[in-house]
Write a structure and sequence with these properties.
- It is a single chain.
- By secondary structure, this protein is mostly helical.
- It has two domains: 50 residues, no CATH class; 93 residues, no CATH class.
- The chain contains six helices and no strands.
- α4 runs antiparallel to α5 and α4 packs across α6.
- The longest helix has 35 residues.
- The chain is flat, with a radius of gyration of 21 Å.
């Protein structure tokens, strides 16, 4: 990254930090424009959404869970095995949701709260154990 690019990014970050209210309004206008464009140029999108509403909810709740889970343990991101454990856990989550939805039935909104609560605890335990194990394994390898 060149010095000029770094200065541009810092200037943008400074402006956003100086005027967060204006940035929020600008972001709202961009989102409103995107929604209006979808309604005008893609009118069939509403019909598509009604047919695949449960799939959309599954994607939304999985994405929401991923953001909240990674955000809550963001300070651990430099630990060995963090990203491997996190991505592996969410890959298993996506496959399990896909298989359950296809072979059993769709997960309803009220059931997502229970699923995400239980998965949150499992994620925390898996993350603690896996990062601890990988860290010990790396120390053991360095000691040889």
């Amino acid at each position: 990254m060149s010095v000029t690019e770094t200065r541009r990014k810092l200037a943008l970050a400074t402006r956003i930090g100086s005027y967060p209210f204006v940035f929020g309004i600008l972001l709202a206008f961009v989102l409103a424009g995107a929604l209006l464009a979808v309604q005008v140029w893609l009118p069939w999108f509403g019909e598509y959404w009604e047919r695949h509403k449960l799939l959309g909810q599954g994607i939304y709740f999985s994405f929401f869970f991923f953001v909240v889970a990674v955000g809550s343990v963001w300070s651990w991101r430099r630990r060995r095995g963090f990203w491997l454990s996190t991505c592996g856990f969410f890959l298993i989550h996506i496959v399990a949701v896909f298989l359950y939805t296809n072979y059993v039935r769709a997960i309803l909104v009220w059931q997502w709260a229970i699923v995400l609560f239980c998965e949150g605890w499992v994620f925390a335990i898996v993350l603690v154990l896996s990062t601890r194990h990988v860290g010990r394994h790396a120390q053991h390898q360095r000691g040889r």
